[in-house]
non-specific serine/threonine protein kinase (Ciona intestinalis), 307 residues
Amino acid sequence: MARSNIEARYEIGKTIGDGNFAVVKECRLRNTESEFAMKIIDKSKLKGKEDMIENEIAIMKNCHHPNIVRLIEEFETENEIYLVLEYVKGGDLFDAITESVKFTERDAANMVADLSEALAFLHSKNIIHRDLKPENLLVSRNKDGSMTLKLADFGLAMEVTEPIYTVCGTPTYVAPEILAETGYGLEVDMWATGVITYILLCGFPPFRSLERDQEELFEIIQLGDYEFLSPYWDNISEAAKDLIQRLLVVDTKRRYTAEQVLSHPWIQSEGTYKGPNLQREITMNLEKNFGDRNRRKAGFTQPAAVH
């Protein structure tokens, strides 16, 4: 197919993100008001990684779920692959917190519930995401003011048929069993969910090396060594802490599944515990701890290797 055929179907607009292999642009289906995100992958930069994209497309085609960014259609030209995706305009998880006026435990619980719904769906198909992090959790703002979380970027997702040994992911969210190289499975997504839940409630990660020493960080993760630091956690409910303690468990057999998260009291107690507005404090901590992250990161990026 020629690019001109794609441009006859879609009006391609401004760039909204870029990665190692791809740019993401706004686009509109011609003669309609329907807007989408178009991921344009440069085949020349993909050499040797073609199967990753094929795998990403195959998995996304198989994943129709309200909490997963939807692949609408795909095209291929001589030099590029075009993925037309659902356009989620609310930014990522961090943007959603820093740009909202109010952010409470209830908002955090709703986001964790949405993420767990997506994971319960994927895991029921034995699909592992492997790259859960706030940048890959996009937020759409609903007309009633509520927010819906959608899981994006399936570049590292795969079907699990036997233990996986490939070391990959982003250091802050990587599970201890990936680092131990003893073989891992679906449970790594639940560890990352625990890390994300922790960050959502205080603005900094549970596992930190003060010297920013990666080797030390990996040792701390493998020990599962974290705490609920005062004063940041003083106003957070015991139920929230309990859920985190059931996710950040080194023993994968004892770690909560997505289904168990959905039935946990903190997730179930919809609207009963609002607690204080955490927005200002979390935003300050996010800026301090994650301020250097690439704000324009979107599209297909090779995650920071953890080796």
Q: What stands out?
A: The beta strands are 10-18, 22-29, 35-42, 71-76, 80-86, 127-128, 137-141, 147-151, 158-159. Residues 105-124 form the longest helix (20 residues). The chain has two domains: 6-86, 93-290. The chain has a mean pLDDT of 91.
